[in-house]
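Hey team,

Filing this mostly as a record. A colleague (T.K.) asked me to run one chain through the structure pipeline before their review meeting, and I want the input and output archived in the tracker in case anyone asks later how it was produced. No errors, nothing strange. Just documentation.

Input sequence:
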Amino acid sequence: MTTRQARLSSLKPHNPARSLRRLRWTPVAVAAGLLVAQIAWPDTAQADAAPPVAAAPAASAPASASPLRLSFSLPAPQGQEHNGKLPLYFEADNLEGEADSRTRATGSVRLRQGGLTVRADELTHTQADNTARALGHVVITRNSNIFSGPELMLKLDTLEGEFIRPHFWFARTKAGGQADLVEFLGSNRLRARKTTYSSCTPDDLPDGTPGEPDWSLKTRSIYLDFDANEGTADNAVIWFKGVPILAAPTLTFPLNDARKSGWLPPSFDFDSKSGFELSAPYYWNIAPDRDMTLAPTLSVRRGAGLDAEYRYLAPRDEGSVHVVALPDDRVAMRSRGLLDFAHKGNLNDGNVLSQTNYELRWLRVSDDDYWKDFPHGLPSLTPRLYDSHANIERQLNSRNWGLGDSQTTLYGGVQTWQTLRDRDPLADPTLSNIDTPYRREPQLGIRSRSGNDTGLIWSLQGEFNRFTNADTNKVRGNRLHTVGQLGQTFSLGGLSLTPRLSLNGTSYDMDQAMSNGSRSATRVLPTFSLDSGLVMERPLHVFSRDLTQTLEPRIQYVRTPYKDQGFLPLFDSAPRDFNQYAIYSENAYTGVDRISDANQVTVGVTSRLLDNTTGAEAARIGLVQKLLLADQRINPDGPDPITQRLSDLLLLGSTSVIPKWTLDGSAQFNAQNHAMSRGLMGVRYSPGPWRTIGAAYRYTREASEQLDLGWQWPLAGPVRSATAQVRDEALSDPLNLTGRRPNNGASCGGTWYSVGRMSYSLRDSRLTDSLIGFEYDAGCWIGRVVAERVSVGRAQASTRLMFQLELAGLSRISLGSNPLRTLRDNIPGYRLLHDDSTATASTGNTPFTTDD
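Output structure:
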């Protein structure tokens, strides 16, 4: 099922910085609201601050108590208000008129009052009704916005008047347009008739007249009422390449960041599993702290369904409920659906040292095949394993217990899982079916540790768990365990020593007999470790950079006695991965069900290059290996003890020293046969924005061998940086004082980009997952088409086709499934084409977010 193409960020009602600020309008409503909000004169922020302007007699008239002044440099006003009115500044070739009656300025007239500047060929002010009339090449500049037209009439006391055939340009959106008439109906109301708005500059036709822009928003009329915080647009239509793509006969919208109920843009999706699917989302603004999105869907193959999300936000709680319902799936011949409930909150009383937080999550799908049929709408990183839980924890004020600055937490919860099986009869059971995790019903515990990381370090944890499993063949039971650690760090210049003593005690009470015939068991094991490290450094100058090179050897000794644990259950323990962090772990297992015996020394050395200016790490190389001083009888990889004295050698490195290149890799070499057991090598070349290409090779002996390739690269068209430079130069005088916008680079030809990622299994000789698409940046609009193929089995895959049309100066309009999240998640280094200072999305008033 398709998801909503627009989401909101959450905000608490009492805190404006956390309100649900992204507006839920159609793109037509967004554009209309943006348009009229910019046309407004004056804007709401300054309407009350700027009182009506009083005109003054001409300089040649008899002197009077008037704020009129001559200025040839037209400086910014510095004087105080006169009789409650800001002073009025004129600059013109000629000034004439009668005192207390009329003032007429001609020839390069410039007028300034407050933040408003007016230029015209002629301007006449009538004292009786305090009206100003400007004629000929009238240009108004306010808040970096520019209006230009042939004639303006304005009553300065009431701010009522008309602007004939104005052109306008908005600094925030880098876009503009024209209207037949703008009627100012007071300080907080106006009406604009027959408006056209676009960020495109059309090419001239052969006869020299300007052509039509690539896209434009046209309305018959727009009415704006700031006092009511509401606007109304009639016959609003968005045109693209001469074709109307979105329209609304009448629509209303708020004039600020407030949310408003209404229909969102319809979306369509092409999916090999569901065929063509159409969705028409409706946004319901229930209250300032509650909203809902209802998206009826219609699939050609599967039938009608509903995708709904309800969100709420309170001072101490927030959450959401997401429901996908397909009552009659014509393909599966049954009802399908998903339920995702998430809630988190706190019970805090204002004491920062004692806090209580809790979290609830319930995630379930209707059947085992859901992950195959709807792979693009799953709310989990593990598509076949869904976690549901309820957790609560209380952070205690340890000072009340006489524990100083230590940190103590009480916690509890329950956890359950839904595991989806692969019902395909042709699937390999050893590869397709996954193990069902144990449930915790419940989990109760306490943990405490010292508040310092140097000197004497201690920690203590006690926990009780009741483990059950949906698989009736697995054992069930209770487990109680405690883990205590005590250590001391000694620093001797660059040398540090940390001896540590740990004690692990575990008790089991099982529902069934274990392999040794008993239903209960107790295990207590101590562990001693000594960790030492040394840091040495020297200055270095390479690749025209001042760097600091470090040499950091590390030696760790671990001793844990052996105790037979083969009969104990495995509730939450698993072998640790072999990496630069796990190799220094005192236990070869995660969890507490297994504690590996150890008499070993781990030796490693790391060298780093640090940038002296930024402190960032420019390069790292290291190697580490473990030496067994005695056989390890508890082997994570099998029943036989480990007798090989040397573990695999781990080699790792990364660097960004070479300009524009990033390399990262690690390799695990078997010390016995001198062959590579696992390896990862990645390289990325990024010479500039919107130019990145990367490759990665992954290898695991006798398991997998995969090659990944990802890129975002221009194919044809002008270089983006040059286009941006042309656009910035054009913005210095965007209207050329004639009402026509200059070319901003859009008509010089757009730029084609290729984007994609491919994962190829060298072991199976097949393409597992792939994504490939094209982006076209025309300057004032961007088009994207992306195809994605995701494997849902060894012989099955799901293919999806996504489209998007993005209009600069409005918001992102997604015709089809929005591909931006997919591109960012799959292509390392991917960057939005308008991800710069001129991007519309950075204006803060864009109703659609690119996260979905």
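Quick notes for T.K.: Residues 27-39 form the longest helix (13 residues). Residues 1-84, 722-748, 836-852 have pLDDT under 50 and may be disordered.
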